[in-house]
Amino acid sequence: MNVFSNKRCESCMFVIKHGVFWFVHAGEYSCEYGSAHFYAMCGFGGILSCGLTHTAVVPLDLVKCRIQVDPQKYKSIFKGFSITLKEDGVRGLGKGWAPTFIGYSMQGLCKFGFYEVFKIFYANLIGEENAYMWRTSLYLAASASAEFFADIALAPMEAAKVRIQTQPGYANTLRQAAPKMYAEEGIWAFYKGVAPLWMRQIPYTMMKFACFERTVEALYKYVVPKPRSECSKGEQLIVTFVAGYIAGVFCAIVSHPADSVVSVLNKEKGSTALEVLKRLGPKGVWKGLTARIIMIGTLTALQWFIYDSVKVYFRLPRPPPPEMPESLKKKLGLTQ
């Protein structure tokens, strides 16, 4: 049986996911689960969720990066904001907003769009029962695969953003930074940070998606006093936000050392990720963690909230948390 199969009749749609029998009336959804339109709209949701949220926290991201690359000058979040306001004014807090918006919009497109693609592909590959029993591994594999491509899309803008934010006098805008970077180091200037990005973003995204999926499942099972099907769309989105914030805290911790390496690497010429890692040492890689937990926790919660809101607004299929397939229940002797 196809794990994510869609079976249609004239008046209804039947969807089976991880053994869940899901019935919806015709017209309730704008597309079929797993269709090209579904993937395209998920990608659009990713653009909004990542592009808007990362741009909104540019001031905090700027201070975080400066703490990582110059901890002697920027000793804390408050000190970082104070010095930045004193030296650059309020407008200085917005440095790097353009590459942030473009880069993370492209990353969101690939991250969320490809996650849905790989999740369905891998689930169909291993079968219905295995998809349920190994669902955490399924989420991890799908998110890692998606993030591999997402980071290639992000790398050029991330490199430009860090140059603008951490090198005083280098450039104030993307239009100034990009030609200057290309003239100095060629195309390599935009992609030398892709390996550290993979180091940072792949564990981050694996945690982001797997932790979110399992937290949603746990919230509906142990915390929410009624089944998801009986919750309003607003109540479902609140659960999404809470699960997203919990996932975000873990994401920040898991990916922070690599994030420190990326920030320093993109500031310096001729350095390698291994050289930067050795120089920072065990303590140095954790500089700026508090700022990043606040930033990533809020970001992740808002990203999932926006992404799920896009699904609700455009009436995309939103299958419920997985349940054990009946065939597996019989094998385990849980049903007669």
Automatic annotation (TrEMBL):
Entry GO CC: mitochondrial inner membrane
Major subcellular location class: mitochondrion
UniProt GO BP: mitochondrial phosphate ion transmembrane transport
Secretion signal, residue range per the UniProt entry: none
Keywords assigned: Membrane, Mitochondrion, Mitochondrion inner membrane, Repeat, Transit peptide, Transmembrane, Transmembrane helix, Transport
Function: Inorganic ion transporter that transports phosphate or copper ions across the mitochondrial inner membrane into the matrix compartment. Mediates proton-coupled symport of phosphate ions necessary for mitochondrial oxidative phosphorylation of ADP to ATP. Transports copper ions probably in the form of anionic copper(I) complexes to maintain mitochondrial matrix copper pool and to supply copper for cytochrome C oxidase complex assembly. May also play a role in regulation of the mitochondrial permeability transition pore (mPTP).
PANTHER family with a match to the protein in the record: SOLUTE CARRIER FAMILY 25 (MITOCHONDRIAL CARRIER PHOSPHATE CARRIER), MEMBER 3, LIKE-RELATED-RELATED (PTHR45671), SOLUTE CARRIER FAMILY 25 MEMBER 3 (PTHR45671:SF10)
Protein family per UniProt: Belongs to the mitochondrial carrier (TC 2.A.29) family.
Protein name stated in the entry: Solute carrier family 25 member 3
Native species: Eleutherodactylus coqui (Puerto Rican coqui)
